[in-house]
Write a structure and sequence with these properties.
Layout (H helix, E strand, L loop, with lengths): L6 E6 L4 H16 L3 E6 L19 H9 L17 H12 L5 H10 L3 E5 H7 L11 E3 L1 H10 L2 E4 L1
Parallel strand pairs: 1-2, 1-5, 2-3, 3-4
Length: 160
Amino acid sequence: MEEHKEGTTIVLFSGEMDKAIAAFIIANGAAAYDHEVTIFFTFWGLNALRKDEPVKLKKGWLENMFGRMMPRGPEKLGLSKMNYMGMGPKMIRHVLKKHNALTLPQLIELAQEQGIKLVACTMTMDLLGLQKEELLDGIEYAGVAAYLGDASQAKVNLFI
């Protein structure tokens, strides 16, 4: 009889760097303990999955405005506290480097290497006008039902 792996799911709703870092540290830790891990990115959390460079796509006026107003990629996310017009994130990146800690892009890469399921919420993508070409390669696309399927099998479910 095959042993069932423990499961961990995380809903990343926040688009703030410190919260995304925390989510990925927990996710990578759970994967290291052999958990099956899903991170479901919705609303502002989707910005952590955006590519750094702009992608030329045909979009409506409102979708273009959302695209311009939201941070493009993990390096552009602000902090939940002490953002100080962009100085806070620079300070956090400096502290991470000083302590040889992984940056958010490195944590995302590690998550992909460990087989963590990174799922972009398709309904939110539609609402915000985000298209697959704007997000990182190697991620999955699904709605809330798919997340709930993973969450119902998991012992640890977090909302960040």
